[in-house]
Specification:
Structural class of chain A: alpha/beta
Oligomer: heterodimer
Helix content of chain A: 25-40%
Number of strands of chain A: 18
Order of helices and strands of chain B: HHHEHEEHEHHEHEHEHHEEEEEEE
Strand content of chain B: 15-25%
Number of helices of chain A: 14
Strand order of the largest sheet of chain B: 5-4-6-7-8-9-10
CATH superfamily of the largest domain in chain A: Aldehyde Dehydrogenase, Chain A, domain 1
Distance between the termini of chain B: 59 Å
CATH topology of the largest domain in chain A: Aldehyde Dehydrogenase, Chain A, domain 1
Chain lengths: 423, 358
Amino acid sequence: MQVEMLLPRQRMIALEELHSLLTGTIAAEPFHESIVDVSIDFSQRIFHDSEARGHPELLALAYWMRKAEMIRLTAQFRSLQLDHRVLTPRGLVFHLPPRNVDTIFVYSWLLAALTGNRSVVRLSPQRSESTSILLRLLRESLAAAAEPSSGGTTIVSYGHEAEPTEMLSALCDARVIWGGDQTVEIIRRSPLPPHAKEITFPDRYSLSAIRADSYKDLPAEKRNYLADQFFNDSFWFDQLACSSPRLVVWCGTGSETRAASADFFRRVAACVERRRYVLPAAASMQKLVYTCSAIINSPVEECRRYKGLTILTLDSLVGFQRSHPGSGLFFEVYLESLLDLTTFLGRRDQTLTWFGFTPDELYALVRRLNGRAIDRIVPIGQALQFHRFWDGYDLLQEFCRCVYIESTFLDVRPTHTNAPGRS
Amino acid sequence: MTFDALIQRPQYSIPQAEKEAVLLAELTRLSQSHRERSPEYARLTRVLFPGSADPHNLAELSYLPVALFKEHFLSSIPESEIFKILQSSGTTGQTPSRVVLDRETAQLQTLALSRIMTSVLGPNRLPMILVETTDLIRDRRQFNARAAGLLGMLNFGRNHFYALDTNLELLLPELKDFLHRFGGEPFLIFGFTFLVWTRFYQALVDSGLDLSNGILVHSGGWKKLQEQAVSAAEFRAALRKAMGLTRVYNFYGMVEQVGSVFLEGDDGYLYPPNFADVIVRDPYTFEEVPHGQTGVLEVLSALPRSYPGHCLLTEDLGVVHAVDSSACGRFGKAFSVLGRIPQAELRGCSDVIDAKVS
């Protein structure tokens, strides 16, 4: 069978040919100058592209790939190579990014490429405008790149067929599955070579926590800024990105938390209006149906509806189900302290975005959870900011094998000689 | 004026303002009664529409999205009073709606449908062609909304003739016999829009048969016909040209409001009967939009007593063209249904490969 190849060149390619193409190349040295240059060049191309300008998520990606960040990342990688350890590429990484968060495939690919790996990326045949922009610019960047980074990246596109997935899985040294529980389950039916590693990104849930007394102390302009940041975290991907908050936890006394919530969500609503966020009609209807079901099924005591924004106030988190329609709907709950969340949080909970807590409070929560939940704690505004630390993984490390070297040769002494101190 | 008057007065004869006043009182009373008898409805309206107990116009009445009947069994009657549970046919893979009826609501539905249909069929039962196969109602396991709709219509005809065989092919000789016996006087044809077009019209288009005494009542939506690029106007024009069929009435209705159907006037627009109405809302703000503007249709009906389905937001797009100014003498809102809200894809982390487990 044939699949569509999108990169290095756009054409149909038979699986056999793809197979030999992928077995033909070799891995590069991690953080080779040429790949760092590709990243910086790609970033520049996005910044200067007139089409990309209308997509804030592309600009965020470009910002993450810029020179200063690459210098920082290179240094971080060097610091991982401590005594007796050399981090080497795994070889060929097979990426299965999610269909609808357009930028993920670049983050996934770039971290693998920076660490010297070759990559093959599978994209869905249904591609958004921003994905097409990224493909066009990446093709240009790689065409202009120096060896060895000009090769080593292949992007293909196919539908639900198992055959290409089977072939690529059998060939790769690491497989990265984004896209939730169901995708992980389906892809796992295609076996990996015994030595290969798998990194999975299953369905996740994320939430925000705000300390009401800290919020109360903010002047109006800072409250607006916080609302704006919260909007970015939530609405860029219709609140369906796994790190976008869906539940807001207010910590403090009863009256303080309620006042803070009322004030905050009024500002978020104003932001939704100002940014002209519009939902497709079908999603808006689905949101209404979901709201009704939630009111019947959960202890929802109040519902506030603004244009494009719905807030459902929960009496308590007991028995709360994490299903969610996305598209600008928030549950909220009032608690006394952050630690009151401990029993509620679980394995699915990924990112906690916060405002107003002390470092001690945040560290205390993580220690109390002790690995049961939460992989990221970042300030409100950074929910979507991609990082090498994601979903509990350090991707820089995950894309490498760790070779242990003992370079001191210990002299072999004849067994009959008396060892010192033994006499 | 009372609810009984709405039912009994000739349909489509009440000016909008007068009708709204009566409907508002009736529907407010219904909301109150459902709140008292359905805890789910009481909770929903309290949380979702605080302060809606005293609405000033029809648009202020609390409404439920129709899809809620798929996820929840919403009832305003004790189990002992259940007369029948209606189930929507539901496309494959979809959960069907469940609508609970008591005897009173079921009777009201029958009466209401009769008041609507006799307004175009006249008071007497007519010889009737069903563009259907008898299998549809014979197989009780598949007894669905389509079959229920058919049974509801049987009452308006006599000498019923099922015009399709088990393979949905037209029984042409038998049809000719029927026309020979009854074709000289008014007769009724009933069927689902898609079957009427593909199995009846397309089989007869070159037959030269004269159906000019026929009155066609059809329903079931335009989705499948839109795929074949047939509009409502083309449908009417084609039937007129091929077989002289000029009295063609589409109707719009749903299992969640049986009996309360919106029948086409001679001008091709749909009209609410006296005891029902439509409101067009913005799908984003849910505010009522001005007439002439497209939005989501809300359907209101004074019939549902046993379940809180008197004000329902549908998943169909529609537009109100005019009020009290129809060319065919009907009062009230003249509107069209423009089909389902188009499905849109949201973004998000899930779903690298569609959940099609093959």
